[in-house]
Amino acid sequence: MMSAPTYSFRPHFFARERTYEISPGVLHWTAGRVKGSIRYDEVKEIRLYKKFMRGEAAQNKQAMWDAHLYTCSNRVILSRLHCARFGTWEDRSTHYRAFANALLSGLRACNPNLKIVAGHHWTLRLRRDFTRRMSLIGGRLLLLLFPLIASWNPVFTANVAARLMRVVGPFARAHRVARANLQAAFSDKTEQEIDYLLQGMWDNFGRVMAEYASLDRLWQYEPGKCIQKRIVLNPTFVEVMSTLRRGDGPALFFSAHLANWELPPMVPAMFGVRSAMVYRPPDSPVLAHEIARRREEVWGAVIAARPGAALRIRSTLRDRVCVGMLVDQHSTGGVEVSFFGRRCKANPTLARLARQFDCPVYGARAVRLPGGRYRLELTDALRLPRDHDGKIEVAASMQMITSIIEAWIREHPEQWLWMHRRWR
């Protein structure tokens, strides 16, 4: 004889843990010494509310569905989130999902016309509205600060921003995400070593944000000079750019959020190579317009990663124009790859384009050096895996590219953006 389905959770620290048990036609519940029951035919309506979770799940921006059962005189709330102790939340999704499905099946069988309403919880709506408004306010504030920051010495500004982010950054939710990512990627490192890398990450992030205001002044490279003031290119970069300048395009470039990732896309334009860079616009519409304008000044053509971008990229490559993109972030619906020994999704667009146009693919990265200097490196053209028909294999190629990026990150882990949720 099978035992009756049960589920228990504590909604908050000041409440008792509640245990629910399903029996034929009745939902029983207990909370300490208090007991009660609700007959299925008493349930008039079920409301399913989507809301963000707390604790570790909140760091990954996971959402959950609360089930609210309404009778004429009572309401029962079921949630997969259990308050283990003050400030600590436990995800009980496995038991919650099975229990909720069994309960809903029984309620529907008892009342086929049962009203079920699904929607977003008011806390989720408030959070999204707040985020949208803060994004708009933050964007306008940065626009006001850009001219002031651009008038200062870029190295001094970057140093100030780096110190500020080293203090402020650890209080952000992204800091907990970055710590979890670093601990998973480098399980052999001590807490002190992880803290050191996190400080380096915030230092680099602060510098990048400050350097946005003076991208045009940041570039200091003159071909033919043995000693460069701020930018150093490896020989492969110079050789490939010289070849592409003669019109031997198109070509594809990939990069990652390392050091100042805005610098490698500046190289083709400085060498007179026709190129277009794919970028993800910021959430703030005001800031997105200004950043796009600044990027066009130093990059040349830009393509926003929005619906229809793939068609524009293909059209650009047909015109023998080079295209570059960042490929180190999560892509819903992407191909599975291994990254630091863990499975994740990678955007297959670059490999698909390489398969369609059969053009060379290069990897570009920036490495931050002391004194506000950078070394920009370009790999040789990759020999991407091909199938028996000679066509480039998309999944295998993305794994090869991901492995190259992983090697870059291992070399300078403090210069990568660990706050992104790469594994989901």
Give unreliable regions as ranges: 57-61
> Average pLDDT, to the nearest integer?
85
- Helix-strand category: alpha/beta
As for the number of domains, it is 3
Oligomer: single chain
Instruction: Tell me how many strands there are.
Output: 19
How helical, in percent, are the residues? 40-55%
Strand order of the largest sheet: 11-19-18-12-15-13-14
- State the major sheet: 7 strands, mixed
| C-alpha end-to-end distance | 39 Å
What is the general shape? elongated
Into which percentage range does the β-strand content fall?
A: 15-25%
Rg from Cα: 27 Å
Query: Counting H and I runs of at least 4 residues, what is the number of helices?
Result: 13
General description of the model:
Helix content is 41%, strand content 24%. The protein has 424 residues and is α/β, with parallel strands linked by helices. The chain folds into 3 domains: 6-120, PH-domain like (Roll), CATH 2.30.29; 141-212, no CATH class; 216-415. The model is unreliable at 57-61 (pLDDT under 50).
Topology:
Layout: E1 6-9, E2 18-23, E3 26-31, E4 34-39, E5 45-52, H1 56-59, E6 63-70, E7 75-78, E8 81-85, E9 88-91, H2 93-110, E10 115-120, H3 122-150, H4 154-168, H5 173-185, H6 191-211, H7 215-218, E11 231-233, H8 235-245, E12 252-255, H9 266-270, E13 275-279, H10 285-299, E14 301-304, H11 309-318, E15 322-326, E16 335-339, E17 342-346, H12 349-357, E18 361-369, E19 373-378, H13 394-411
Parallel strand pairs: 5-10, 11-19, 12-15, 12-18, 13-14, 13-15
Antiparallel strand pairs: 1-2, 2-3, 3-4, 5-6, 6-7, 8-9, 16-17, 18-19
Helix pairs in contact: 3-10, 4-6, 5-6, 12-13
